Amino acid sequence: MDYIVEGIREAIWLIFSGDTEIFGIIVLSLFVSITATTLAVLIGVPLGFYTGIKQFPLKKLYGSVLYTAMGIPPVVIGLVVAILLSRRGPLGQYELLFTPQAMIIAQFCLVLPIVTGILFGTAKDKGREVLELAFTLGANRHESLKLLIKELNAAVLLAIMTAFGRAISEVGAVMLVGGNIRGSTRMMTTYIALNNSMGAYERSIAMAIVLLLISLIINAITQHMTGGKAYVD
Amino acid sequence: MSIECKGISKAYKHKQLFHNFTGTFSPGVCNCIVGENGVGKTTLLKIMSGILKPDSGMVTHSGMCTYAGSSPYMLRGTVMDNITYPLMLKRQQGRREQHVVLEMIEQLGLNALKHQEAKTLSAGEKQKVALGRALVWDPEILLLDEPTANIDRSMIEMIEGYLKDYLKQKNRTLVVVSHDYEQVHRLSGVLWEIKHHNFDAIIEKRENNRGLLECR
Ligand SMILES: Nc1ncnc2c1ncn2[C@@H]1O[C@H](COP(=O)(O)OP(=O)(O)OP(=O)(O)O)[C@@H](O)[C@H]1O
Ligand SMILES: [Mg+2]
To answer: Under CATH, what is the fold of the domain B3-215?
Structure first.
């Protein structure tokens, strides 16, 4: 049991000593996950809204595919992206494999269905009601859209936070496409995995504490912004 | 300022509702729609408001039209926010007359609730808010689906009075769906009865609803 207590003590010391390696990894992880989430939000929010409200043939099938895509294991996504980006792959000419960009692409593919799916579900159920109300009260197109975003912004926030939470805590995809290269593609999660397998528990615990703190902060922000209410009412 | 249906047909997957319905709902009188559950009253009203598209035929209205249902959607925010919303739209050219909203709230007996989150209201209270939200911007055509379904007796009287006053204005068309024959009687005017007929529904118009009450 001693090594656990010892690990935690050393971990705390590591965090506060301003270890440059740990600090660099945190910055890289945040950068990759924030970029991937932002891109996914920019595309997924309008896409989810639009496909949720619009009636079109095979909408049910589209919904099923989307919900299935939300649950694809990150490793599988990592594998597919790695194959596409590998030297002999269709996108090999860009030489992106084992770069931060590759990790952004993989995380983007991972969270896009999550963002789209959450908004699709909400817009499908609530969006019509909101648009009908806006219409009956005489709102024009622009005003209807504004109202829709205002009414469903809790879902947008939920989507952003879920997506970011998923991206930052994911190991498999970034391991495969990034390669866990020290100083260039080592992320918080791959760092934890590596140090754990090498028996450097204090380092993995230190990073785990940071990861946990980030999750807590995200949660606090979400809670604060939604006024402590349920995410989607 | 009337609302006119020309050859409206509507069917759902396994159910033909109405076929080729034509009729004019005139201003100045209360148009009451009655009929059994599931006969298509709400559907007809939604088609008239433009929320639903008919399979064929068309609806023409002159003037602004609003629809309020019996389980209305509450916007996020307070009762006040909900009733103010229609007045903030461009169509109203930004007339944010606070006193109109406050008067409406007062008349509907929502004064004590005006700062309450609208989503937390009771069914009847929500319906009052929906009514206020529909009436506050004074549209020319008012389509109400069971407007007093969850409302207590004292309030029903007040609302009916309000509707009668609404009709006294020039060029106002009112269509009300109701299951309450007493209410239909009180509001009088033109009665539209939707009936099942084979697999179709037929819509009958009677100028004088007294006859209907007696034969029941
Ligand atoms: N989206 C839909 N898909 C399939 N059937 C529908 C749909 N909407 C309504 N219906 C059916 O159409 C019929 C008419 O519905 P509608 O809501 O217009 O009835 P109503 O006359 O208003 O009934 P109530 O008195 O209970 O309010 C019902 O049998 C209903 O089941
Ligand atoms: Mg109905």
So the answer is: Rossmann fold (3.40.50)
